[in-house]
Amino acid sequence: MLVQEYFKSRITLLDEVLHSYLGANDVFPQQLHEAMNYAVFSGGKRLRPILFFSTYEVLQGSKNLNRLHRVAPAAVALELVHTASLIHDDLPSLDNSPERRGLPSVHVKFDPATAILAGDALITLAFEVLTDIKNRDQAVKCIGILARALSTRGMIGGQAVDLISDSKKININVLRYIHMKKTGALLQASMELACALNDADENLTITMGNFALNIGLAYQIVDDILDEVGTYEVLGKEPGSDMRGNKATYPGLLGLEKAKKKAEKLLRDSYNMIKNMEGNEILVEFINQVKERLP
């Protein structure tokens, strides 16, 4: 199966299930549901759900779209919490980003209060969705994985450290922590959820989680590089926002060339983790997508 066909078919499945959980814009309270739908269906790449689906299918040993229906709640939950994190991240009290994916951010399209509630509602819905996993033991395990990924030890913790580090001089270890938690934790959860739904052993789960963390860190380093040398078309927002906000970045601490080499090493290490797995071409494509963004 061509990679493009794989992504298209899995995104179609995901969007169908997302629509079934989110419902229509005119459901009371209308503005809140409109904001939730606006955020979820504003052109995201669905990378975390696709990473989940592809990992699940690698562990299953075959690619079968019909089999994915039973694990679709986990993919939906990932996209809902990712979208919520973007809504909150864009708020004036955090990154103060007026645009997301070339469109007005949710707090600009609606208002900050509605944006906060929309993010909260999407996170709440994500955990409700996970209860639809038929195997109770697997459902509980998935809820635990996602909760840890969002917690003060995960994405929210990374966001908090990012916030308190704003306009401060921090070292590379603190910056790495921010990226590993703020970006990496949910990617790690994507692969750990797939492992949980396959009853994978601990060693395999750790390997897949480390693959995701490497990809997430490499992606964030590339994002930092592009913020300095990229374009609006690539980023979907005006470049230079990190510099204007005095935020610490990998290029700022290491220089552009060393930052680029760091990203390349992370991607090489990621490939070595999964190179011997059968049916790994979609996982390899994730590596290639990050690599292709390197300027």
Please give a structural write-up.
This protein is mainly α. It has a single domain (3-285), classed as Orthogonal Bundle (Farnesyl Diphosphate Synthase), CATH 1.10.600.10. The protein contains 15 helices and two strands. The chain has helices at 3-22, 30-40, 47-60, 72-89, 106-109, 112-130, 136-150, 155-164, 172-196, 202-229, 232-235, 241-244, 250-254, 256-274, 281-293, and strands at residues 99-100, 103-104. A two-stranded antiparallel sheet has the order 1-2. Strand 1 and strand 2 form a beta hairpin. Helix 2 (30-40) crosses helix 6 (112-130) and helix 14 packs antiparallel against helix 15 (281-293). The longest helix is centred in the last third of the chain and has 28 residues, at 202-229. It is globular and about 50 Å long. The relative contact order is 0.11. The mean pLDDT is 91.
Task: Give the secondary structure arrangement, pairings included.
Blueprint: H1 3-22, H2 30-40, H3 47-60, H4 72-89, E1 99-100, E2 103-104, H5 106-109, H6 112-130, H7 136-150, H8 155-164, H9 172-196, H10 202-229, H11 232-235, H12 241-244, H13 250-254, H14 256-274, H15 281-293
Uncertain spans? none
Give me the side-by-side strand order of the main sheet: 1-2
Going by CATH, the architecture would be Orthogonal Bundle
Helix-strand sequence: HHHHEEHHHHHHHHHHH
Helix fraction bin:
over 70%
Number of discrete domains: 1
CATH topology: Farnesyl Diphosphate Synthase
**CATH superfamily, called what?**
Farnesyl Diphosphate Synthase
According to DSSP, the number of beta strands is 2
Note the gap between the termini: 29 Å
At the first level of CATH, the class is Mainly Alpha
Question: Averaging pLDDT over every residue, what do you get?
Answer: 91
Major sheet summary line: 2 strands, antiparallel
* Rg calculated over all Cα atoms: 18 Å
Strand content: under 5%
Task: State the secondary-structure class.
Answer: mainly alpha
Categorize the overall geometry. Answer: globular
Query: Count of helical segments?
Result: 15
